[in-house]
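User: 6-phospho-beta-glucosidase. Structure?
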Amino acid sequence: MSFPKDFLWGGAVAANQYEGGWNAGGKGVSSADVVTRGSRTTPRYVTYKTADGKIHKDELFTLDAPEDAVFGVFEGFDYPSHEAVDGYHRFKEDIALFAEMGFKTFRLSINWTRIFPTGLEEEPNEEGLRFYDELFDECLKYGIKPLVTLSHYETPIGLSNEWGSWVDPRTIDAYLHYVEVVAERYKGKVEYWLTFNEINTLEHGGFMGAGVPSTDPKKLAMATKHQLLASAEAVKLLHEIDPRNQVGNMIAFMAYYPLTCNPEDIMACWQEMNTNWFYCDVQARGYYPAFKLKEYEREGIDIHLSEEEKKVLKEGTVDFISFSYYMSNCAAKQSDAAETSIGNMSLGFKNPYLKASDWGWQIDPMGLRYSLNILYDRYQKPLMIVENGVGTQDVLEEDGSIHDQAHIEYLWDHIKAMKEAIEIDGVDLIGYTPWGCIDLVSASTGEMHKRYGFIYVDYQDDGTGKGARLKKDSFDWYKQVIASNGEDLGE
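Assistant: Predicted structure:
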């Protein structure tokens, strides 16, 4: 058999896209809570006000707020994280469905602001701690191991307003205080941890990734340094609290191919791939790679990395590598002939050999096998695919059925690529948690009709729907895949 007998099959969500209950149980405001809904054609915005009392909004990925900006929630805006898909109240129903599919693990995130509402408190919010106690207990009741992301795009907005979030080194201490509290509380319940979600997206979306209200490269470089140090310290802390803990990083992995065999395109592809390698090199190898230090030097950025900080990075390397994979892209020095391509917070050129999803993301299962190989070759650590999937416009039929064949075909092809990476190439792959195992609000657009799940959630973009959970065709298909440990993928 291709897959190990203890392979961790499951699914993945994020607190800010799943839970809702944004101000329930003593929860504070997170960076996700101040981001408005968008669409395929309308950007999402961050709302804030300045000293003159005027409320402003800036595009999420081009945000450069003035110094007097105060981030918060204001009337007249639609914030999708506030309701999400109501997992806060319905998680028991959802976990029962995951168990029916045969999940071995469930990747979720703790919302930092449920535990420390502003990020500045000394004492944690007990009601928030109890919520995750109940959630983890429900998982364990069915033999499902929680895989917990400690920070998944929901930095406390109190830290952004106080000192600019991760730009300031004091955020490291706030984060480690939070990590210590949850690690002690859930010792024996959680053994798999991820420090930051898609940490390498910080330079593309500083507010989304780290609550940083700036596009200044120097500020983002410092925020990056502080998150990498915090990750290393968290690895050490989690190991000290419970030696059984396994701690991974998590990067948004984008496989790049050169658009042509022009040597300039080959070098452009290598440079694009370095956007994958930088963060992962630090977290898995324990040091800043030379190419990144040279890039900072050219840009006049001094991150003031001390000998003590270098020691922290070296001692806090992760136990395994986890990553998201949705698509691949092509890179070129320049091209007037090729169309551009969008993706998971990335830009590139369209590959003429690939099809694309309804949202223009190129579908490339062979790219997943390629990615597994180059990741394993570079780091020689166990790998886990913690996000993978395709957004589809699923239709709820009158009889309550949902025929998501495009979803099944995408996953079929990618699981086949995983099998080949294990069986033929010898890659050490330990788990697979497809993204949005239950429909969520989209991180990139805030929409509901971009659906990834095996379970349809009856909420619509126009505000209708009561949140009923309905099995799609892919539900029974994935159940069969798990039951056969990946050997029976159907016809």
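Residues 8-31+83-483 form a domain with the TIM Barrel fold (CATH 3.20.20.80). The CA atoms of residues 481 and 489 lie 6 Å apart.
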